[in-house]
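Sequence in, structure out.
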Amino acid sequence: NIKYNSKKIQKGDTFIALKTNNDGHKYINDAIKNGATKVVAEYGSYPVETLLVDNTKEYLVKYLYDNYYKEIEDLTLIGVTGTNGKTTTCMLIHNMLNKLGRKTAYIGTNGFYINTFIKDLPNTTPEIIDIYELLLEAKEEACEFVCIEASSHGLDQKRLAGLKFNYAIFTNLTHEHLGYHKTMEKYALAKQNLFKMLRNNKYAIINNDDKYKEYFLLKENNNITYSFTKGDYYIKDYQITSSHSTFKVINKNKEYTFTTKLLGKHNIYNSLASIIVLNKIGYSFEEINNVLTIVSGPKGRMENISYNNNNIIIDYAHTPDGIANILNTAKELHPNKIITIVGCGGGAGSDRTKRSEMGNLVLSLSDKTIFTNDNPRDEDPNQIINDLLKEKINNNYIIELDRKKAINK
């Protein structure tokens, strides 16, 4: 009965004023009107029982840990962080473990799953109270494992504080969220927090090809590296067709072959990280490949639709690195022509510095580009398009702000 959203308060609840993206102190009176009989705050005087603390987030983390952590302590937590690949890697692990008969939950961009979809979530990594509620529900439903997408915002705002992870995966770090973090170092350090939350001698699984890897190779952890060149698990070679990817993995001087429905080199990275987790849980490479071959990726992640003689690929890519991955994968399928529809999200806090890089990547890797709207929020859509085309390298594009018309074109 402790809540941070004044709209969800019911008679007799306690309202806690968190200071994250918005200052919860502004909503204390609303919470009292809605029936809150106690308030936890950092300042102020209120007409109900009030507990003043130095830091409401730290108080909440301790309150939840003291009262509920024992109930969820034996869940195996698998955390995935990185600019790209979090959702795909998390969903792969979730889907494969469930196919192997091990009941597993998922918390992330796609919502809350226990084998199948349960409900949408407000953030990739929800607030700490919501995380506890989801973990308690997973426990009640007899889950053994929970896969959690750990966003940089979520880690920076201590939305996972107090939890202990059995596995932490670092996928990659590329240009994104600098409107919030300001520098790549601060962005890396926010993600590094996940690797300080591992249980004793549990596994940190790190992309050895990423230039920011040193931030995640902490000496106190049991580090495992994966790579296309050198690492504890590395890819020897791979092939991509319009229906699947096949790749060979070397581990302890032995070679193993895997097949996945997911397309692209970036999805081979995601698949390999998932393979390592299942291998450390105790599954043989043969058992892992049997389920990897049949599971699908999440919707909107390299989702492939055949139409006449054409391949239509839908992808959520919204960073320069993500766009490069998708279009380079499309090139590996040797099409006659690549036509790309793309936009860029807007609004306060969005990272405008990545836009011209995204625009030029699309122009250079596509035969034709249609620039359109992608959730401009409160920003002028024309300004977003101008930013995308600020340093344009060619004129092989059209602008159609109406997304439906752009798709029809």
